[in-house]
Amino acid sequence: MDLSATHLHLMLNHIPVLGTIFVAIVLIWGLMRRSREITSLGLIFTVLLALATIPVYLTGEPTQHQQEHAAWYDRGRVHEHEEKAETGLIAVLITGAIALGALYFRRGGRPGNGAVTGVALVALLISAGLFALAALEGGQIHHEELRSGSAVTAPATGPDGD
User: Fold this and answer.
1) SS (H, E, C) 59-118
2) Which long-range contacts (CB under 8 A, 24 or more apart) does 112-120 make?
3) Among 139, 123, 129, 122, which residue's Cα sits nearest to residue 50?
4) What is the model's pLDDT at position 146?
5) How many C-beta atoms lie closer than 10 Å to residue 19's C-beta?
6) CA–CA gap between residue 144 and residue 136 (Å, rounded)
7) Using the 8-state DSSP alphabet, how is residue 17 labeled?
8) How does pLDDT run across 96-109, given as a tens digit for each residue?
9) DSSP secondary structure code for residue 140 in this structure
């Protein structure tokens, strides 16, 4: 099996989409329980998620070059996906930096700054929304059924199912 940039991109692109949601849940859980350990874990996961998103973005360009001669390739859709993904990347990198700042304030057993952790959570939720939009655009590149106005119809059958 040839593990190309396209394969890597399609495997990795779920990390920021699902990761932002799961990490936000951990962070919310930690804040609701007022658990220093769970909140710190959520902040650490936020930083790791930001770092893990970089290879997802970096595999996008080689994927574009591998696919640009395919019959189904749509340069406009790819461009829209790329723009949304870049916005999501910037947002999650800023979010990771905020989470790192929150961890810095919590170091050495200090109580930390709840406002910075709250900002990290809000930024994480914004990043999740941006990645959801990027994923929708990405899916529409090759999946016609995801495009607005596109109807997926079942084959016509008679009253007896034939």
Assistant:
1) CHHHHHHHHCCCCCCCHHHHHHHHHHHHHHHHHHHHHHHHHHHHHHHHHHHCCCCHHHHH
2) 112/36, 112/39, 114/31, 117/27, 117/31, 117/39, 117/43, 118/31, 120/27, 120/43, 120/46, 120/95
3) 123
4) 54
5) 23
6) 11
7) H
8) 999 999 999 888 87
9) H
